[in-house]
């Protein structure tokens, strides 16, 4: 296969939907480590990948979002970083074969880097580098640094991926609507600031995920496209804006509702489309059908 950043310049691609949503449906308990399933329950993780592939996804995203040493330390698994991330990539590669890309998920540490916290840039860099090396060993061909809100942490992760591996690097931020009608991350980073700094750090592809549904994602994608007209953009919205129903968070957008917005997301500038919280194989299948009609 061509490298992802080359392929997506000529072809619109569908990515996976939510991983956590599917693992909880398969029995993941509150407080349990999702990433540990890559070692302990590989058949179930593989079944999620297979469901998304059957739905039409061209990119298999790994079950490694919280696989950095900071997150895994909460479960007493800090010494298993390499094994978990390598296994996560290998499971995805088993399903992807040589016809799909394997995009390894690299989420935030949950800690704060100086001057906002006690962690150093060097410590963050090594944590992300540790993950990235394991991804490459396991067979991934791309990494998505995703659900980021602090630009410093995002850029350290991107630099670690680029310096320590030969993998395609995507960077994806989470933006929230602002009172003035604009968008910014929890740390106050705008789409334009993110685009400029993530690309300077070495990202091949930029985008946004989580935080909002497809309606808000349209405006965010348009701003990213305007800030970096020549760079591919990935859009992975939630299945609508979350609402509380009987004390539980629910993402209300049905597959056909979400798929109906695919054309507008492409027109706004998205080249890769997938889903985040609340999205399922049914959402991805509906989006894939819609994208096929656009192609």
Task: Please tell me about this protein's structure.
With 295 residues, this protein is an alpha/beta fold. The protein has one domain: TIM Barrel. Helices cover 45% and strands 15% of the residues. The protein has helices at 4-7, 20-25, 37-40, 42-55, 69-73, 81-96, 121-138, 151-164, 191-201, 214-227, 255-259, 262-268, 281-294, and strands spanning 13-14, 59-61, 101-106, 142-148, 168-173, 176-177, 183-184, 205-209, 233-236, 243-245, 248-250, 272-273. It has an 8-stranded parallel beta sheet with strand order 1-12-9-8-5-4-3-2. Strands 6-7 form a two-stranded antiparallel sheet. A two-stranded antiparallel ribbon has the order 10-11. Helix 4 runs parallel beside helix 6, helix 7 (121-138) packs across helix 8 (151-164) and helix 8 runs parallel beside helix 9 (191-201). The radius of gyration is 17 Å and the shape is globular. It starts with a helix and ends with a helix. 56% of the residues are buried. The model has no long low-confidence stretch (mean pLDDT 96).
């Amino acid at each position: 296969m061509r490298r992802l950043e080359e392929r997506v310049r000529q072809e619109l691609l569908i990515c996976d939907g939510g991983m956590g949503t599917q693992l909880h449906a398969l029995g993941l308990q509150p407080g349990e480590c999702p990433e540990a399933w890559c070692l302990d329950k590989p058949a179930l993780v593989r079944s999620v990948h297979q469901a998304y592939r059957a739905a039409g996804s061209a990119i298999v995203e790994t079950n490694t979002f919280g696989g950095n040493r900071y997150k895994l330390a909460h479960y007493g698994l800090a010494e298993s970083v390499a094994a978990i991330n390598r296994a996560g990539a290998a499971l995805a590669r088993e399903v992807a074969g040589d016809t799909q890309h394997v995009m390894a998920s690299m989420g935030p540490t949950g800690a704060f880097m100086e001057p906002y916290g006690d962690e150093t840039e060097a410590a963050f860099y090594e944590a992300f580098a540790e993950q990235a090396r394991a991804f490459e060993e396991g067979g991934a061909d791309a990494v998505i640094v995703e659900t980021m809100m602090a630009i410093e942490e995002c850029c350290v992760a991107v630099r670690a991926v680029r310096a320590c591996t030969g993998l395609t690097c995507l960077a994806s931020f989470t933006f929230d609507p602002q009172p003035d009608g604009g968008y910014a991350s929890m740390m106050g980073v705008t789409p334009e600031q993110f685009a400029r700094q993530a690309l300077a750090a070495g990202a091949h592809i930029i985008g946004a995920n989580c935080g909002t549904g497809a309606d808000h994602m349209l405006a965010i994608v348009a701003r990213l496209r305007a800030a970096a007209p020549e760079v591919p953009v990935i859009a992975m919205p939630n299945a609508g804006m979350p609402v509380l129903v009987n004390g539980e968070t629910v993402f209300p957008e049905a597959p056909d509702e979400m798929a109906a917005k695919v054309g507008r997301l492409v027109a706004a500038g998205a080249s890769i489309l997938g889903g985040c919280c609340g999205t399922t194989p049914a959402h991805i299948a509906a989006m894939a059908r819609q994208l096929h009609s656009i192609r």
